[in-house]
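Q: What changes when nicotinamide-adenine-dinucleotide is included in the input?
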Amino acid sequence: MKIAMIGAGYVGLVSGACFADFGHTVCCVDNDPAKIEALEQGRIPIFEPGLNTLVADNVRQNRLTFTTDLTSAVAAADTVFIAVGTPSRRGDGFADLSYVYAAARDIAAALTGYTVVVTKSTVPVGTGDEVERIIREARPDADFAVVSNPEFLREGAAIGDFKRPDRIVIGADDARAANVMNEVYRPLYLNQAPILVTGRRTAELTKYAANAFLATKITFINEIADLCEQVGANVQEVARGIGLDNRIGSKFLHAGPGYGGSCFPKDTLALVKTAQDCGTPIRLVEAVVAVNDQRKRAMARKIVTACGGSVRGKTIALLGLTFKPNTDDMRDAPSLSIVAGLQDAGARIRAHDPEGMEGAKHLMPDIAYADDPYSCAEGADALVIVTEWNAFRALDWALLADSMAVRVVVDLRNVYRGEDVARHGFHYVGIGVPT
Ligand code: NAD
Ligand code: UGA
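A: The predicted holo structure follows.
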């Protein structure tokens, strides 16, 4: 099949490269010329494990190309995916659909022959209807269908998630379009991925419901962690104790500094807004949004407390800036709130991240950056693990003990067992675990 992928970001580039790897012919379109130029020169604009090789292999096989010319890519395609951003709209938190609608207008002008237009971007219920209206109005003559096919991949594990998904959701209101989508996903039959064909609106809502549920699960365990700290219990063991119950499941029960990233924060907000607009507020998710926001700010206070009540004039070393490991994505990372809170309290910040420092420098130009964990910690008054990168899982505590000014460790991801670190003379503070 010939596929045009509009938007070559975290989702579009991974999906495009995976579809090409499954044998389809894919053209990734982006209106950012710098991104396309980089891709054409073999440089991958984002960090995602395995993507470099996957893209290079498929470019070599002539199955994957890149362009800024949407018109020719769409004209040649049987299926056009919209994978552009849907960030929070300033002011009310609803999804900003301007990129999706702009893409729909451009696609409309370029359609030739029967084409299935697929929204892969995360979009509120009813967006498919509006995309269809935009295209129909611009091109009353066009032969097309609009389908919803939300994406469930995670950054850092994107290729595996795309190739071996727990399920594929296709929201198609007509059989012809559903058949085309079945062809698109046929290569995944071998992996036995269940394909759920639903109505378009149901597919759109399923995506938000999934993200909101996962965000709720994280927020639940985070609040249990707070309670653990008060009563001397261990949240890691509570999580295991409840997670072994199949009805609950063990995933997404890892307590931390609050969920971040380009999806959960904006998608929970957008769901809250949709529900309010429909007169059926989802109070549970409203609470999740509020609790998570407060939590990110509370993490700076936790660090201040661990430092004896003041960080004024002190140097705090942060390990990990991205919202999770194995990505360079800094969007809505908890580190941003933590740094702001510590700076307000008078601290100097020195940070290290294996892949996120370039992005972080644009967002936080006024902090110092170090090339590795040890130079980051040198002379510092506290070391804070913000993101659980593998590179931080086997730190040399004896070395750190000698080089830091004060031996304080705040482990916001419970990477270590307190006693292992305390053995080197550190005051260790984790999340929801006894100190
Ligand atoms: P992104 O910002 O990384 O990529 C979007 C790309 O679209 C950018 O490169 C931008 O230049 C391009 N673009 C915007 N308008 C365009 C147009 N009119 N024509 C061509 N290109 C255009 O965003 P992302 O993280 O890939 O997310 C895309 C969508 O997928 C969002 O709705 C997001 O919620 C959803 N999603 C993201 C993830 C994730 O892990 N990032 C996972 C599942 C779903
Ligand atoms: C999330 C979903 O997991 C994907 O299924 C979805 O496709 C994607 O959002 C999206 O819609 O864009 P992602 O944001 O890439 O994926 O990463 P996650 O692994 O879900 O982590 C999100 C945040 O939750 C991170 O800040 C992470 O540290 C935090 N988290 C996750 C926890 O604090 N505890 C956990 O147990 C799991």
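Observations recorded in class: The mean pLDDT is 97.
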